[in-house]
Amino acid sequence: MKVDGMENKSAKLGQAAIENLVMIGFALAFILPIAFFFMSSTSSENTKTSLAQAKVTVRTIADEAGELYLQGDGAKKTIVVNYPDSVKGASVSRGVVALTLEPEAGRRLDVVSSSFAPIQAAENFAGSRNAGLQRIALEAKRDLNGDLYVEISYE
Is residue 137 part of a domain? Predict the structure, then answer.
């Protein structure tokens, strides 16, 4: 009789283990899709935040360059802007300030803003840059022809 009782207990334990595994499977079937949904929506929100931050940054640089251009030769100013986490670099060309972002692997975005002022970048303005606060020096200068422009450099 003890042998039969042992077999019956083993069968009950096995059935309980299978029931637990089935319950865990059902729980995972519901939890995993919800978790993936939240992860993807968080990534999308981070991209939107980075884009908004980059737009404010390039607009600030372009506006400040225009202000110095109107003040004339010798006007100087240092500003602090915040580069978003996904920034890869900054550039200036013909009055256009651009930040290059890479919010997702393999996807690059350029956020640009224009200024009526002719803007030139100093040598140290080229190349990749880290995210975070950046001190940018702007100075109104004259070129060899006597034309006024604004030079942008990192401090």
Answer: yes
Distance of CA 96 to the CA centre of its chain: 20
**What's the token pair of residue 106?**
């393999």
Would 32 be classed as within a structural domain?
A: no
Residue 143 lies in a domain: yes
Domain hosting 97: range is: 50-154
The number of folded domains in the chain is 1
Which whole-number Å values give the CA distances from 134 to 49, 121, 129, 142, 154, in the listed order?
18, 15, 9, 25, 7
Q: What is the pTM of this model?
A: 0.71
b/e code 100-120 from CB counts within 10 Å (16+ = b): bbebeeeeebebbbebebebb
Question: Do 116 and 128 meet the contact criterion of CB atoms below 8 Å apart?
Answer: no
Q: How far is Cα 1 from Cα 32, in angstroms, rounded to an integer?
A: 46
Decide if pLDDT at 59 tops 90. Answer: yes
